[in-house]
Amino acid sequence: MNGLLCYCRAGFEPELAAELTERAAQAGHAGFARAERGSGYVVFADDEADRLSQALPWRELIFARQKLRLIAELRGLDPSDRIAPMLATLPSDRRFGALVVEHPDSDESKPLSGLARSFGNALRPALRKARLLSAADDAALQRLHVCFVAGDHAFLAISDPSDSSPWPLGVPRLRMHADAPSRSALKLEEALLCLLDADERARLLRPGMRAADLGAAPGGWTWVLTRQGLHVVAIDNGPLRPHLLDSGLVEHLRADGFAWQPQQPLDWMVCDMVEQPKRVAARMAEWFARGWCRHAIFNLKLPMKKRWAETRTCLSDFAHAAQRPLTVRARQLYHDREEITVFASPAGPG
């Protein structure tokens, strides 16, 4: 089977299908998407899957948590022996660095978690005996993925470590810290992991840097920034959790995030205000156009309909109104709901 298998948030399959279809067409591919709402995944069939995968880098996809290159779709698997048909399907000249057995992140597929664990324990030694899997995890080799969508229905796929998420299902498992003012802290923590690489986190998040958090209350995003050693001006007419001020790194100003502006340029601006996405995108662009910040992470709350079209329009308008070359990455994160998270930074090194 030729094509891609991409995971997404359950309910956003139409958005992912629309994104893949449009991006593929722009790259000259006439494939088609197969999606079922609530399934947590989309199959994009294309006869030139290798070229398509190169044309659609994982880091540039917004609604895809994970991007895999399909090998086969197996239906009607016999529960007494699912391994044999998989071994027969896999190319004998390929060796994988790791095995990932998983299921889509959907209510319908959650009962498959036990099967995924037990099947992985059975399949690994069989793959090693067949010389298809390295004796120890090898990060330089492609990973083999088995995705169960039912007990008798599975996809076989591969991932390139340099062009896919390192986490099963594309979801970094983060724990809520006892001191975090709100669960929204997990959004920014995930954004820093998913939208920045390790080198960028080391260069762009240094103790002593200055930041603004627009719409800060109760302080989840401010708390994440202070844990990186940043000094934060928290902008919100609502109250912050009192312990945030104990750090000595936070100044709380009761003001409107759409009206307040800094007295001098800041290293960072973050924003999770609940407002129409076009209005937020326009305000974020103003910050860059006026030179008020160097880097930003912000959320865009999406409408109930035409969410891919709204996403595309907002990001295009933002990039144009910022009036400077920017690196822009966006993704619907695991801890997002009806929204996407955007990272913006000056294009090029620095």
UniProtKB/TrEMBL annotation:
<dbReference type="InterPro" id="IPR048646">
    <property type="entry name" value="RlmM_THUMP-like"/>
</dbReference>
<dbReference type="InterPro" id="IPR029063">
    <property type="entry name" value="SAM-dependent_MTases_sf"/>
</dbReference>
<dbReference type="GO" id="GO:0006364">
    <property type="term" value="P:rRNA processing"/>
</dbReference>
<keyword id="KW-0808">Transferase</keyword>
<keyword id="KW-0963">Cytoplasm</keyword>
<feature type="binding site">
    <location>
        <position position="256"/>
    </location>
    <ligand>
        <name>S-adenosyl-L-methionine</name>
    </ligand>
</feature>
<comment type="function">
    <text>Catalyzes the 2'-O-methylation at nucleotide C2498 in 23S rRNA.</text>
</comment>
<comment type="similarity">
    <text>Belongs to the class I-like SAM-binding methyltransferase superfamily. RNA methyltransferase RlmE family. RlmM subfamily.</text>
</comment>
<protein>
    <recommendedName>
        <fullName>Ribosomal RNA large subunit methyltransferase M</fullName>
        <ecNumber>2.1.1.186</ecNumber>
    </recommendedName>
</protein>
<feature type="binding site">
    <location>
        <begin position="217"/>
        <end position="220"/>
    </location>
    <ligand>
        <name>S-adenosyl-L-methionine</name>
    </ligand>
</feature>
<keyword id="KW-0489">Methyltransferase</keyword>
<dbReference type="Pfam" id="PF18125">
    <property type="entry name" value="RlmM_FDX"/>
</dbReference>
<dbReference type="Pfam" id="PF01728">
    <property type="entry name" value="FtsJ"/>
</dbReference>
<dbReference type="GO" id="GO:0032259">
    <property type="term" value="P:methylation"/>
</dbReference>
<dbReference type="InterPro" id="IPR002877">
    <property type="entry name" value="RNA_MeTrfase_FtsJ_dom"/>
</dbReference>
<feature type="active site" description="Proton acceptor">
    <location>
        <position position="301"/>
    </location>
</feature>
<dbReference type="GO" id="GO:0005737">
    <property type="term" value="C:cytoplasm"/>
</dbReference>
<dbReference type="GO" id="GO:0008757">
    <property type="term" value="F:S-adenosylmethionine-dependent methyltransferase activity"/>
</dbReference>
<keyword id="KW-0698">rRNA processing</keyword>
<feature type="domain" description="RlmM ferredoxin-like">
    <location>
        <begin position="1"/>
        <end position="68"/>
    </location>
</feature>
<dbReference type="InterPro" id="IPR040739">
    <property type="entry name" value="RlmM_FDX"/>
</dbReference>
<feature type="binding site">
    <location>
        <position position="236"/>
    </location>
    <ligand>
        <name>S-adenosyl-L-methionine</name>
    </ligand>
</feature>
<feature type="domain" description="Ribosomal RNA large subunit methyltransferase M THUMP-like">
    <location>
        <begin position="81"/>
        <end position="159"/>
    </location>
</feature>
<dbReference type="InterPro" id="IPR011224">
    <property type="entry name" value="rRNA_MeTrfase_M"/>
</dbReference>
<feature type="binding site">
    <location>
        <position position="272"/>
    </location>
    <ligand>
        <name>S-adenosyl-L-methionine</name>
    </ligand>
</feature>
<comment type="subunit">
    <text>Monomer.</text>
</comment>
<dbReference type="Pfam" id="PF21239">
    <property type="entry name" value="RLMM_N"/>
</dbReference>
<feature type="domain" description="Ribosomal RNA methyltransferase FtsJ">
    <location>
        <begin position="182"/>
        <end position="274"/>
    </location>
</feature>
<keyword id="KW-0949">S-adenosyl-L-methionine</keyword>
<feature type="binding site">
    <location>
        <position position="184"/>
    </location>
    <ligand>
        <name>S-adenosyl-L-methionine</name>
    </ligand>
</feature>
